[in-house]
Amino acid sequence: MTFARVVGTVVGVVRSDKIEDARFLLVEICDQTGKRGGDFLVALDAVGADRGQMVLLAQGSSCHWSKLTANQPIDTLIVAIVETVDESDKVVYSVPGSDA
């Protein structure tokens, strides 16, 4: 899995997938602290992520293991919204207001 930040949305009027109400987001790859890296991807949002949130991405064939994406041409899927990252017993990322 890969960390990323949601930075925008992508709208496709004509699409080859058959996913009803699909929402595609523009994400920027980041490190475990949330620092952005400058590389961007388009990902199908499976969790209701919002702009600015840090998310976890699944990529490649594992994107086809959900009911939503089975047999669909999806390469990158947002599978979680990150609240806290603990690295070597130290919190390196935490959403403001979380209990971490």
Please characterize this protein's 3D structure.
- The structure is a single chain.
- The protein has one domain (2-94): EutN/Ccml (OB fold (Dihydrolipoamide Acetyltransferase, E2P), Beta Barrel), CATH 2.40.50.220.
- It has no helices and seven strands.
- The strands form two sheets. The chain has a five-stranded mixed barrel with strand order 1-2-3-5-4. A two-stranded antiparallel ribbon has the order 6-7.
- It is an all-beta fold and 100 residues long.
Outline the secondary-structure elements.
Elements: E1 2-10, E2 24-30, E3 36-45, E4 54-59, E5 76-81, E6 84-87, E7 90-94
Structural class: mainly beta
Number of domains: 1
In angstroms, what is the radius of gyration? 14 Å
User: End-to-end distance, in Å?
Assistant: 22 Å
The number of helical runs is 0
CATH topology: OB fold (Dihydrolipoamide Acetyltransferase, E2P)
Question: How are strands sequenced across the largest beta sheet?
Answer: 1-2-3-5-4
Low-confidence stretches: none
Order of helices and strands: EEEEEEE
Shape: elongated
- Kindly estimate the percentage of residues that lie in beta strands according to DSSP: over 45%
Largest sheet properties: 5 strands, mixed, barrel
What is the assigned CATH homologous superfamily? Answer: EutN/Ccml
Count of β-strands = 7
